[in-house]
Every structure is written in C-alpha cells, then in structure tokens.
Amino acid sequence: MDLGIDLLTSGPHASVDAIVRMAREAEILGYGAVWTHERVLCPAGDVDQPPGPPRPLPMYYQRTFEPLDTLSFVAARTSTLQLGTSVLTAPLHHPIMMARRLATLDQFSRGRLVVGLGQGWMREEYEAAGVPFRQRGARLEDFVAALRAAWSPDPVSYDGRFYSIPLSHVDPKPFRRGGPTILVGAASPAAIDRAARIADGFNPTSMTLERLTAAINAFRICADRAGRDPDRLSIVVRAATPLTESAVGLGRPFLGGSPDQVVEDLRRLEDLAVDHVLFTNVRQPPLDEQLSLLERVKTAADRALSPDRVS
After folding, report:
1. Main-chain phi, psi angles of 146, to 5 degrees
2. What is the CATH number of the domain that holds 74?
3. In which domain, by residue range, is 262 found?
4. Residue 83 domain-assigned?
5. Per the domain annotation, does 258 fall within a domain?
6. Beta strands 156-159 and 2-6: pairing type?
7. Best CA proximity match to 93, nearest among 136, 62, 154, 51
8. Mean pLDDT, 10 residues at a time, the chain of 311 residues
9. pTM summary value
C-alpha cells in the first residue's frame, strides 16, 4: 500500500508557499503522491449536504486553489511524486478542453498524473456552470468516454449523448499511450456501478470500516459483472479525517486519530487490497503541525505495512 497527501489548497493556512513546502516535504518523506481537490463555489448561505439538513459549507472551502494549475506548479518543483486529483467535478467542464489540459500536465510531469473524477453533489455549482444537476451521473459517463476518445490516436472523433468531437487532431496526447489512470469517486450504488464500468479505479471517501468494505466489495462485484478484472483496478481511499497528536478515544473515526491509530486502520485496508490512501487533515492545524503528523504516520506505516506501491 502506498500513501499520499492532499495538498494544502483549501483552508486558512492555504498559500503558495505552504503548498510547495508540503509537496517537497512529502517527496522527502517518501510519500507516493500529492493530491488536489476541486471546489468551484463556496456559497454564502445554507447548502444541501446530504444526508444532513441544509447548512453552511465549512469555512475550509472559502479559499481553494485551482487544482490543475496547482499541480502544474508542483510538478516543476518535484521529481518523483505522482500528481492526482481527488476529485474534479467532471460535468462542470468540457471534456475536450479538459483532455488538453490534463495531457499537457501529464507531458510536463513525464507521466506522473492520476486523474480522479466525480459527479459532484452541490447543486449551486451546477447552476453556475449552466449544467442540469439531474444529468450529472450520465454526463460523467459520457465525459469519460469523450476524454478517452480525445486521448486516442489522431484523428479522433466521438458522438455521445452530451458531447461530440468532429473528426480532428487533438494534441498533445498524454505522456503514455492510453493516458493517465482514471479514478472515479462514488458513494451510491448506481455511482459505484458506473465507476466499475468506466474507470481504472475507485476513489471512495473514508467512512466506517464496515461501509468502506461494503463499497469496495460492491465495486469489485460490479466490475466483474461488467466483464472486467477487479484485480487490475485500483482502490484509492481518501481519508478525510482528523490527524491528532495523541490517541482519540470513544467516537474516533476510521482512519482518524493519532499516527499509531491511523496505521492500525491502514493494516485493515491492506487486508482489503487497497492500493493507496491519501490523507486530508480536516482539523486544519498549522502547516508545521500537519507535516510533523504526516512524518509520524509515514514512519509508523513504513514499519507496519508491506512496501508494495500503487501502479
């Protein structure tokens, strides 16, 4: 199992200097990847956030750096880290424009890009983009097909439900033939089934061990039903949990707590053949504290886990 870090692109401590420092420290510590996430809007009022009632978004999202521009900047200042998105809300973008942006970043980074996509959940972002919210799942599926078409040998064409490409040359292509690994984030049964049919891997967000196990098993069952080999598809878990200096007692979230507690949870994910876990410290402590905790997690994980790396 390999480990990654969600870069400090949101929240009160987000800054260019903090992002670059975190990426460089991650590389020195031996983390396998750094990741960014997308938040197009942070509405000022209450927002529907299932499964709870409408409420304000966390202040964390009031400042969020653009994910691909951030990774481009980081690519020039690192050499070994994979560069991932977890996730881009695909239907808010056009697949041809996104295909060119992603391929350009993949070329400049010499093939280090991992593309995490999702359908999103915030109605306000869809309204701002002029995209029907009810179509988000179908649009994600069409988006991935158009993206793969754009990355295929020229001339390319595509005729889908929402997107089309007239017979054209679309360059640059990604660094490697076929393009970067495409992960899809999903939670509902229909979304998990879609991810299993169209993606190279599954990118669930942390939940209880029981729910996470059920989601991963469902993804693999759906992949097998679609005629795909589940063992060839990556599982990348996003741990949106608090990292703390000392152990957490009753109510500790799975993949949250002290470094030793987190590593005990990682052992359980290793049993599930999870390939990669990326950490987002939702407590948002100052950068020095975050880096100290991430160093302790990596040191403990190196002692406890097998050295296999995500492909």
Report:
1. -65, -40
2. 3.20.20.30
3. 2-304
4. yes
5. yes
6. unpaired
7. 136
8. 96 95 97 97 92 88 96 98 98 98 98 98 96 97 98 98 97 96 97 98 96 98 98 97 94 96 96 96 89 96 71 33
9. 0.95
